[in-house]
């Protein structure tokens, strides 16, 4: 019976590698036309930049992931441009080029990755506002900057990395605006130093930007993005309380990452709120096994741990699959992977604490701010529903809030607004964010077309 | 806004039609790149807040859907441009 | 064990239960509604939203007429119209047999004062040019329409509470009994006591009835639902078909809501899942009705748990074993429109011992005592009772 790997990024690639080495032929499904995932996204055919330009310090890792996958191709059933839109007992429903197909599996490893976490601010839906991850993809996969004068706004290591990549590529980086104060980052220095090279790279990016006179501000409070039909201005309050603005035509925003875990949700995997990550995370054991038979998780889709640990987690989950099938393990390899995964944990925790999700910013967003950009529902509308006179019949959790206000009911099904909506609702109900729960996944995890009968 | 082409600019030229007007793009562009390198929006929000130009560029936010003649509705950021494509940004009444 | 006494206990907080609480409270009766989860969390909150009289079993038409009158007055009654719009209901025939069915129903409608307009093949395609070529005729009910199912039960509950009802969410019932004087309903460490008990527990109404010695063949029913992204608004009427295997409507915001077929459920949890096979099948049927929807993006599918009776009409009325116990459940996938009136007549039954709406066809004991029905409506051994 089949083994299905969903996602051909670093986790999926290493998972496939282990399975193939054990003589198995996994099916590997990815929505993209090529393997690599997002961090190691491959540029289209005809593009000529070398890996060093595309991936910087990660060039060797990117090349290794691509080479490994290319070598694996004859031994796997690779299905690119294929969306896995539903997971039920022992079956994953897919669609590719308008054709639907139900794929049975005995084990599946979900390596579905992550997306940026958004905190809405006034004007964030204007043309020219993109996520940090999206801005990076524009450069890496399309050779484009998101604008001629770009501001970077948010927090997390990606903020500095993408600003650095843009400046190196010749884009004009107008400002790098970090909501996390310097003192908060400095307090994590000890923990961050455990990250070794990763930490050093982060410091390098910041130093490089500063050396070129690029404006960096920390501890900022974003105020607004303004413009008529496109970005023209971004404004913020600095750590001392002074207002600033800059004329820009694009803003890259992002506040850390959150797992794309919709398939795990549909599988019935329980989720826990991780207070350090400030994310709901599907529950798995250290090997990647979940409480749902046959369902394994690896990579950022099971909790944000970064690309290096995604590789280790992918391989480790594959060993867990082999164990589930009664096949012998390479005990030394497994022990090494377990050690790598355990060792990385404290650095990850320090990183999360160094760049915390600005929950208060989200909770305090102005009433007029569009919270759900798909359905255009404002924070004020959500608060009004929460503050209904009869508190007991007001939404006490996000799914009921969704039913009553339409927040999270649009095309993205709450991917973008869910985290911020929980903060707004929790603040209105005076309870911690985790108490209002998380948006429950419903199939399809991404839109699928209405198809005629013969497509099935 | 416009996407700024910083690199990979010497690719083969490809032309497509956007809302009835011929537009020049480059081979390997996604539909999103091809449109936003030329013009500043991808769609008009149904609910009155004006123009949109996508957000995440990775097929997650679902804010970049456009219409391709003969191809139905597609996500611009994950759809490769092919020459001669006829793209419409106004949601056409079915 | 702490105890609370009241006049009327209502078990089940969907449309029927909440409207019962509202009508009782407005007449000054003290009542407590016990809902296991959230108000309107099952069938009442996940259904298609049709507010429809056309096509109902004749026995339901008086109740549906009563409900329609209340729908018109919802804003006065509960402060919101729940997005009720009189779009008309257009029931379509896709072949001659179905067309004959529509024609036959015209007499039923006439006898019950329900205005229907039969539209033949040529005219219907002129009037609705987006209809697919397989449509041969239609019957239009100008008085019907649709509303937002997610809003109705919470709004009814809020109004009931304003009127003095005690609405308890997250209050599952573990035991029901009558102690000779009054009903005793247990939830956790708490007992609720009342002279009257109203059973509006949906699919689980069968379990409530069974607690009082009444075996009822109610089965779980999970209508498979889908919704598209917003599209330009062009489908004005609420669409149905003879046979009910697909229903489709477009809301003003542009989303097309459609459904048909069954999802899966486990009522003991309770949990339910839409079915990809049912979704694929109903997509094809939707395209048969409106071909231009090809390629429109479905963004969500869902289902819930309703209660289905073998003859497709609900159980409403007095208990046959226990005085002062009243039932209203098993609405078989089409209770949404009836909900506002169910509460009105339940309050009349409780307080006046009488209602004008004929309830004989809905008697709980209409199913032969020594037989029972499985989900397909086939008779089988009573030991396999639902």
Automatic annotation (TrEMBL), chain B:
SUPFAM superfamilies membership: 2Fe-2S ferredoxin-like
Keyword rRNA-binding: no
A GO molecular-function descriptor: iron-sulfur cluster binding
Name of the protein described by the UniProt record: (2Fe-2S)-binding protein
KW Oxidoreductase (keyword) present: yes
Keywords carried by this UniProt record: Oxidoreductase
InterPro entries per the UniProt record, alphabetical: 2Fe-2S-bd_N, 2Fe-2S_ferredoxin-like_sf
Organism: Bradyrhizobium niftali
């Amino acid at each position: 019976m089949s083994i299905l790997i969903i996602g051909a990024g670093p986790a999926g690639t290493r998972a496939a590698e282990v399975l193939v080495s054990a003589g198995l032929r996994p099916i590997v499904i990815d929505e993209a036309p090529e393997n690599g995932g997002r961090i190691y996204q491959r540029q289209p055919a005809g593009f000529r930049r070398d890996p060093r330009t595309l991936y910087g310090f990660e060039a060797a890792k990117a090349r290794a992931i691509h080479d490994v996958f290319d070598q694996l191709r004859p031994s796997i059933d690779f299905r690119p441009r294929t969306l896995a839109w539903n997971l039920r007992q022992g079956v994953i429903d897919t669609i590719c080029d308008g054709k639907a197909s139900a794929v049975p599996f005995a084990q599946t490893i979900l390596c579905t990755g992550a997306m940026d976490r958004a905190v809405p601010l006034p004007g964030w839906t204007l043309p020219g506002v993109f996520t940090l991850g999206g801005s990076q993809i524009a450069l890496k996969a399309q050779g484009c900057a998101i604008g001629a004068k770009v501001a970077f706004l948010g927090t997390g290591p990606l903020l500095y990395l993408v600003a650095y990549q843009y400046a190196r590529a010749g884009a004009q980086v107008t400002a790098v605006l970090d909501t996390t104060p310097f003192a908060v980052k400095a307090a994590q220095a000890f923990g961050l130093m455990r990250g070794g090279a990763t930490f050093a790279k982060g410091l390098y990016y910041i130093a490089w930007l500063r050396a070129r006179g690029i404006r960096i501000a920390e501890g900022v409070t974003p105020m607004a993005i303004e413009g008529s039909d496109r970005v023209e201005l971004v404004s913020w309050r600095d750590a001392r309380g002074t207002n600033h603005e800059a004329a820009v035509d694009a803003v890259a925003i992002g506040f850390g990452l959150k797992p794309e875990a919709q398939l795990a949700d549909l599988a019935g995997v329980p989720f826990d709120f991780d207070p350090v990550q400030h994310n709901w995370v599907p529950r798995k054991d250290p090997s990647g096994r979940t409480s749902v038979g046959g369902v394994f998780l690896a990579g950022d889709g099971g909790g944000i741990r970064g690309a290096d640990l995604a590789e280790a987690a992918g391989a480790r989950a594959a060993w867990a699959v082999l164990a589930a099938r009664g096949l012998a393990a390479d005990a030394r390899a497994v022990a090494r992977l377990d050690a790598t995964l355990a060792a990385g944990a404290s650095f990850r925790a320090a990183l999360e604490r160094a760049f915390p999700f600005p929950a208060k910013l989200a909770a305090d967003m102005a009433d007029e701010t569009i919270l759900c950009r798909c359905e255009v529902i404002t924070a004020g509308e959500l608060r009004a529903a929460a503050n209904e006179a009869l508190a007991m019949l007001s939404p006490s959790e996000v799914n009921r809030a969704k039913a009553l206000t339409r927040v999270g009911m649009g095309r993205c099904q709450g991917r973008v607004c869910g985290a911020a909506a929980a903060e707004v609702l929790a603040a209105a109900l005076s309870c911690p964010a985790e108490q209002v729960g998380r948006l429950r996944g419903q199939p399809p995890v991404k839109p699928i077309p209405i198809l005629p009968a013969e497509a099935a | 806004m416009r996407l700024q082409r910083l690199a990979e600019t010497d690719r083969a030229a490809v032309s497509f039609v956007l809302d009835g007007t011929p537009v020049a793009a480059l081979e390997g562009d996604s539909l999103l790149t091809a449109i936003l390198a030329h013009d500043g929006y991808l769609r008009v929000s149904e609910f009155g807040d004006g123009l949109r130009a996508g957000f995440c560029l990775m097929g997650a936010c679902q804010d970049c859907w456009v219409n391709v003649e003969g191809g139905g509705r597609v996500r611009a950021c994950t759809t490769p441009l092919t020459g001669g494509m006829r793209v419409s940004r106004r949601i056409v009444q079915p | 064990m702490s105890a609370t006494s009241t006049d009327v206990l209502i078990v089940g907080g969907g449309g029927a239960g909440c409207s019962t609480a509202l009508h009782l409270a407005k007449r000054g009766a003290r009542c407590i509604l016990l809902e296991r989860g959230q108000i309107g969390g099952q069938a009442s909150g996940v259904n298609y939203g049709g507010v429809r009289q056309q096509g109902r079993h004749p026995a339901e038409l008086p109740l549906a007429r009563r409900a329609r009158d209340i729908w018109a007055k919802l804003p006065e009654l509960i402060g919101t119209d729940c997005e009720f719009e009189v779009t008309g209901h257009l029931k379509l025939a896709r072949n001659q047999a179905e067309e004959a069915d529509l024609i036959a129903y015209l007499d039923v409608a006439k006898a019950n004062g329900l205005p229907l307009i039969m539209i033949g093949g040529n005219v219907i395609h002129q009037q609705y040019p987006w209809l697919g070529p397989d449509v041969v005729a239609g019957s239009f009910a100008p008085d019907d329409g649709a509303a937002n199912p997610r809003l109705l039960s919470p709004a009814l509950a809020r109004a009931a509470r304003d009127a003095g009802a005690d609405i308890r969410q997250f209050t599952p019932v573990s035991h029901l009994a009558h102690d000779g004087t009054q009903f005793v309903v247990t939830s956790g460490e708490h007992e609720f006591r009342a002279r009257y008990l109203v059973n509006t527990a949906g699919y689980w109404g069968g379990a409530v009835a069974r607690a009082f010695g009444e075996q009822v063949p109610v089965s779980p029913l999970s209508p498979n639902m889908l919704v598209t992204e917003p599209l330009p608004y062009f489908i004005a009427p609420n669409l149905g078909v003879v046979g009910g295997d697909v229903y489709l409507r477009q809301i003003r915001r542009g989303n097309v809501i459609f459904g048909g077929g069954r999802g899966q459920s486990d009522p003991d949890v309770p949990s339910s899942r839409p079915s990809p096979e049912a979704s694929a099948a109903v997509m094809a049927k939707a395209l048969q009705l409106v071909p231009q929807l090809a390629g429109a993006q479905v963004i969500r599918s869902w289902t819930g748990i309703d209660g289905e009776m073998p003859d497709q009409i609900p159980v409403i009325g007095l208990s046959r074993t226990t005085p002062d116990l009243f039932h209203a459940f098993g609405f078989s996938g089409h209770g949404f429109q009836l909900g506002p009136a169910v509460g009105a007549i339940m309050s009349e039954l409780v307080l006046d011992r009488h209602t004008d709406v004929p309830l004989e066809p809905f008697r709980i004991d209409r199913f032969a005592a020594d037989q029972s029905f499985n989900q397909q409506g086939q008779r089988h051994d009573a030991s396999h009772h639902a």
